[in-house]
Specification:
Helix content is about 60%, strand content about 5%. The chain has about 180 residues and is mainly α. It has a two-stranded antiparallel sheet with strand order 1-2.
Length: about 180
């Protein structure tokens, strides 16, 4: 049985493409620039392999090279994709750790494996589900109306975000949101 990809699914990116985009974003944020040599060093790859992947990302419209200095920069689509991926990773991490109860290392590894597979539509629904559950539990807990066997707590303050767009735009680095604040 084959599963049909929904029409609204985002552009397909491989796991390694995602790491390239995140690395470019991280280097730009931390150093102010990203070059092929920096990306290769950060990902522990050869400059040749990095150049090949960067050409693929250029064709997809996620990056471009600045003519005068050869810095690699994310396009507007690239920035949006990075924030979408970081948001998915953050949601998956907190869901697995705080809602499901797996240990932090497992949650981080699994979130990294799944982040690029989640569509924007699913990520948005996931955010609303987690926000509703977290904020409802927080309110019930404050009022002393939450049963003892259901003492739920997450360290991500979902109630602080008015909507999913605000949550997405708060994603800054390649670690979960709480670690970056």
């Amino acid at each position: 049985m084959t599963t049909k990809k929904p029409e609204h699914h985002d552009i397909e990116l491989s796991h390694s493409m995602v790491h390239y985009l995140l690395t470019i974003h991280k280097l730009k944020e931390s150093r102010g620039f990203a070059r092929v040599t920096d990306i290769a060093k950060d990902l522990d790859l050869t400059k040749g392999s990095v150049s090949t992947m960067l050409n693929n990302l250029k064709k997809k419209g996620f990056i471009r090279e600045e003519e005068d200095c050869k810095f690699v920069v994310l396009t507007e689509d690239g920035h949006e994709e990075v924030h979408r991926i970081l948001s998915s990773r953050t949601l998956l991490f907190y869901f697995l750790r705080d809602f499901v109860g797996v240990d932090e290392d497992t949650a981080e590894f699994d979130a990294c494996q799944m982040e690029h597979l989640m569509s924007s539509k699913t990520s948005e629904k996931f955010f609303h589900f987690m926000k509703n559950l977290a904020c409802s539990c927080e309110e019930l807990n404050k009022k002393g109306k939450l049963p003892a066997e259901f003492q739920f707590k997450t360290t991500l303050d979902f109630c602080a975000f008015k909507n999913v767009d605000e949550f997405v735009h708060h994603q800054k680095g390649d670690k979960q949101l709480a670690d970056n604040e």
